[in-house]
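ok trying again, last paste got cut off:
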Amino acid sequence: MSAGSGLLAASLAGFHDWFSWVVMLANAAAGGWALGAHFRPRLRGWPLWAFIAAAQGTIFAQVIVGVVLENRSGADPGDLHRLYGFAAIAAVAIVYAYRMQLAHRRELLYAGGSFFLAGLAIRAMILS
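nice, full thing came through this time. structure:
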């Protein structure tokens, strides 16, 4: 590994560690907002859905950075760490797939999904 490649891997590792907090906090906040919106209709609207989309987007960014980091550094994060990352992506897809069937409880669906994603982030952070 060249010096430049090692520096990139170290930078990616630092970013991946720091950004895991962003993923967890953003999804926890999205879950709280969506839960509040279920009980308080005035909290609903496009800002809620934009925030949820941004919070879920952090998951995709984190997984991409993790894959690049593993390929660049050769580090082995462990099978469970990888599982939690890819399970989070699958969970986003599953929640999205149920949005029409649960339209009358959409805020609860996204609250539960967002809290689940925050939990996966916490578990992945503990494993690393």
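cool. The radius of gyration is 16 Å. The helical segments are 3-39, 46-73, 79-97, 106-127.
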